[in-house]
Amino acid sequence: MSRLTVTDSGSATHTGNVRRSNEDAHLVRDPLFMVADGVGGARAGEIAARLCAEAFAQVELTGRSGEELLVDVIRRANRAIFDRARSDHEVAGMGTTVVAAVLAQPPDLALAHVGDSRAYLLRDGVLQRLSEDHSLVSELVQSGQLTEAEAEHHPQRNVVTRVLGTEPDVQVDSFTVEAQEDDLVLLCTDGLNTMVPETQIAELLAQPLPAAELARRLVQAARRGGGEDNVTAVVFRMGPVTDEVANGAPASERRLPALPHPAAAPAPSGRSGRTRSVLGAVAVAVLVVALAVASLVGLAASNFVGADTATGRVAIYQGVPVDLPFGLHLYRLRYQSSVSYALLPATTRRSLFDQRLRSSSSAYAAVHALEATYP
Would you tell me how many other CB atoms lie within 10 Å of the CB of residue 167? Predict the structure, then answer.
């Protein structure tokens, strides 16, 4: 069996179509790769993600197993973020997700993660999700309260239940997979997988293109899909050790497949233009009907308990938990609690964030009881 190594790697990141700043961070340090997605608002998430990336940039890559190395650096990053947040009130409550991979002992590829940034493996044309989200909707899916399809469009799909920086210690999930020649690995923030279906991710990764170009096209697809969040993709390919690799050439400088010339897009016909106009009219009609139905059920009288992803706090929303096309929502933030949802036990989160509609008094009673338990 040929010795394996990383033969090609690349990355791409973008603020997206909605956010004003990019709170993602990433590192491509062959054979170490990392993606982080900062949370906390007011640019604090950007600081948390950067501190995480700095920890990975400084780590010594020799002398330890892959999982041991990753878990250690993630815990050190967690402590650095926690200490910074505790000493600087302007960034209090900041945190970050992280997913990382290292080929420390080929062919064993070690991975570790905290939060909902993901790791994927494309092998023989089949895409496998390697990581399991630490998120509210993941817990609801596991408990049978949501299906995978419902989770993809759930209003609280961005609520993470485990991040770096909120506590002095953090639980890190780690595992090892045996890499094979031509394996393609993707690390990404949720700005990609919430905007691009996994079937499309698989199709894009299957193209015979350099890793950097694949990453760029994935980010473009996320923007075309709505671009509601920052998006980052890191892609690397496994292959046999060659003379170039043995002589120490960086992955980015090794011989890569040539890019095909882009095909010219056909000019839209009058018929296709009319079709798009009809579809646009239908979409507007559906939106109007949805708004009318929502008003009939009484938005003002309906409330539900959820989580404010910008602050990491339990919150009360007025309306119904429905997201409409074009970034419209049938709910608004009514009250933000002092309780961090990441500190709640999983059973409490599942019962509290079940999206059932409550009266105003019922919603406030549930949250105030929580505040008494977790002051």
Answer: 16
